[in-house]
Amino acid sequence: MGFISAPGPLEMLVILVIALIVLGPQRLPEAARSVGRGMRELKESLQSHDDEDDPYVDDLDDDRPAAKPVP
Question: String of b and e for 8-21 (b: at least 16 CB within 10 Å)?
Fold first, then answer.
């Protein structure tokens, strides 16, 4: 199995045409908003994760002595 990459412009156009045929011009904008809203919520939930709440992440910076300046 070869490397699978992100869809290019031609593939995106084909997906858009298929979505337009399946959903129709009235429901396509609402479906696009719904997909965008879902992607935004996923992105926000991934960004809201704090490493401080993660028990497996040690705070090594507090225990480490300061670096010596280069002469």
Answer: eeeeeeeeeeeeee
pLDDT at 58 over 90: no
d(CA 6, CA 12): 10
Q: What is the pLDDT of residues 18-43, one digit of tens each?
A: 999 998 989 989 998 999 999 999 88
> CA–CA separation, 37 vs 43, rounded Å?
10
Is there a contact between 20 and 28 (Cβ–Cβ < 8 Å)?
yes
